[in-house]
Write a structure and sequence with these properties.
Elements lengths: L18 H4 L7 E4 L5 E8 L7 E5 L13 H7 L2 E5 L17 H11 L5 E6 L2 H11 L5 E7 L5 H7 L10 H19 L7 H11 L3 H5 L11 H11 L5 H10 L15 E6 L7 H10 L5 E4 L6 H15 L2
Parallel strand pairs: 3-4, 3-5, 5-6, 6-7, 7-8
Antiparallel strand pairs: 1-2, 2-4
Helix pairs in contact: 5-11, 6-10, 7-9
């Protein structure tokens, strides 16, 4: 692969990825064998005290359990256990066709394995639908609270909040949008990460940093727990089985979710969203909030799909850690 950088069109990254960052620690390489023959990969971060409150964090897409690296130190500071799980086909979890409504069973399997009686959930971006599924199906005796940060909404939300899509044409529009999501949007999102050479991945991530705030992330910062090398490690782990997990995530989130948001106990759900989110428009978060009964959404002025974490991560995790 090294000869690829001789081409003027393909530049090397600013520095090679740090091998120490690409290596996985023992607590990041755990797995649970289920009775149906599947394996769930998971990682543990934050506090190691079993009496501290537990938070399950659901990754976006592409993503895997290594997302927890970003909040390892923070969760240690606030005294919270952080558990992250690979969804099917991502990282160490077996690739098998699963419905969104089946995800809560997997979460409870890991919680039972770790002897965690009650916990909170944080779902970011594409992890949002999986968090809401848990809010719907996990009993309140087990699930204390659910927080969705910049969550992806159902296709129906995009149809209802986008004027030129609101005319359904007898069901043709929803069908066409779902088809486009699976066969056009998902492959396009996947394209930059098909080459799993660490140097190429890091260069791709550097090139994707376009805004001044994103470019700030490229500069060394001793106060920041993770950097692009951690993101490279995460992508390598995400796609270690291939692209099936990513495509399954996309198919699940763009299909019928299998439950009505109105059936969720909205009193135990919190939504955080930026008004400048270009990935998940804030109008779709308002659509979800309305179906949860209203009053669950906090809109952050100037917030984007990524800056919410930078400016409000401590508040989000402290709220989730409350018993």
């Amino acid at each position: 692969m090294g000869g690829m950088f001789s081409s003027p069109e393909i530049l090397p990254p600013s520095s090679p990825p740090d091998p120490a960052k690409l290596a996985l620690r023992p607590e990041e390489s755990k797995s649970l064998d289920l009775s149906d023959g599947r394996t769930l990969g998971y990682a543990t971060y934050g506090s190691t005290n079993p009496s501290d409150p537990a938070i399950f964090l659901f990754h976006g897409m592409p993503g895997c359990r290594l997302v927890g690296r970003s909040w390892n130190k923070l969760c240690k500071t606030i005294g919270a256990r952080l558990i992250t799980i690979d969804r099917p086909g991502n990282g160490l979890s077996t690739l098998v066709d699963r419905k969104l409504t089946q995800w809560p069973e997997d979460v409870l399997s890991v919680a039972d394995h770790l002897k965690i009686e009650s916990f909170s959930i944080v779902g970011g971006s594409a992890g949002g639908p999986f968090a809401l599924a848990c809010a719907r199906f996990i009993p309140k005796e087990r699930l204390r609270r659910t927080t969705v940060v910049c969550g992806i909404a159902p296709i129906e939300a995009f149809l209802d909040t986008t004027p030129y899509l609101s005319w359904r044409l007898g069901g043709f529009t929803p069908w066409a949008v779902k088809l486009a999501a699976r066969h056009m949007i998902l492959p396009r999102l996947l394209a930059p990460y098909r080459d799993l050479d660490p140097n190429r991945l890091k260069r791709t991530l550097e090139d994707q940093c376009q805004t001044p705030e994103e470019k700030e992330f490229l500069k060394p910062d001793p106060n920041r727990e993770t950097d692009l090398d951690d993101a490279v490690a995460g992508l390598l782990e995400t796609f270690k089985q291939g692209t099936g997990g990513f495509m399954l995530d996309g198919s699940i989130t763009s299909s019928d979710w299998g439950f009505d948001l109105k059936d969720i106990d909205g009193e135990r759900v919190w939504l955080w969203h930026g008004d400048q989110d270009a990935v998940a428009p804030v109008a779709t978060a308002k659509w979800i909030d309305e179906r949860l009964g209203g009053g669950r959404l906090r809109v952050l002025e100037g917030g984007t799909h990524s800056t919410i974490w930078k400016h409000h991560e401590k508040e989000i995790f402290e709220q989730s850690a409350k018993r």
